[in-house]
Write a structure and sequence with these properties.
62% of the residues lie in helices and 5% in strands. It has 205 residues and is mainly alpha-helical. The chain crosses the membrane at residues 12-33, 45-67, 73-98, 145-163, 183-203.
Length: 205
């Protein structure tokens, strides 16, 4: 029969609380990621408590908390939840930072891009809107998934490849100043968020 000492019980309790908090963070990130509509305003500011939670997880790992993991199942659950947070939580966080930077007032299109005006085909024709940077949320998910996967595999150089591929794919759409600003801010926030979410796992190896 396995004997549980007080330290073991404390470790199980702490890790159970951590897993529950991370699971709650994933649920909150999913709610924050819902696209705003005319009837339903955006809820991206709900990601702020999740940022605090990730910061706590980093501090917990930095002070050696991962050494107290009571079992492999707890470690795997924590890594999976951190990965989910890193993938899902980046999109609402980008929106929050864009608003703080004053770039959140750009009109959005129906496919997740931004609307920019361009001159009509003939002189004096009414300007028409064109949607650029489409599919940003989906690209962000894939970008952060690739970064987190590369970090877990120890292939940190792959981050440069991910950024280069994204930059090349968007190059033709970056002639607009609003597009450039959103692209730079969004990419940097996405990279930092993915790094922050995978940091506890990397520190705890």
């Amino acid at each position: 029969m396995t004997v549980l000492y007080p330290a073991d019980v404390l470790g199980i309790v702490l890790w159970s609380v951590l897993i529950l908090l991370l699971a709650g963070g994933v649920a909150l990130a999913l709610v924050a990621s819902r696209q705003p509509t005319a009837e339903r305003p955006g809820r991206h500011w709900l990601i702020v408590p999740v940022v605090v939670l990730v910061a706590i997880a980093i501090v917990f790992a930095a002070v050696g908390g991962w050494a107290s993991v009571p079992g492999l199942g707890f470690r795997i659950a924590a890594i999976v939840l951190l990965l989910a947070l890193g993938v899902v939580g980046g999109s609402p966080l980008v929106l929050v930072v864009l608003e703080l930077a004053g770039s959140g007032a750009v009109p959005l299109g129906d496919h997740g891009g931004i609307l920019v005006s361009e001159a009509g085909a003939r002189g004096g024709a009414k300007a028409k809107d064109r949607e650029i940077l489409r599919g940003g949320m989906t690209i962000g998910y894939l970008e952060r998934l690739a970064i987190i996967g590369a970090a877990l595999a120890g292939q940190f150089a792959a981050v440069a490849i991910v950024v280069a591929v994204k930059g090349l794919g968007r190059f033709s759409e970056l002639e607009n100043s609003a597009a450039r600003e959103r692209f730079i801010i969004g990419t940097l926030v996405s990279l930092v968020w993915a790094a922050a979410c995978v940091a506890p796992a990397v520190i705890g190896w």
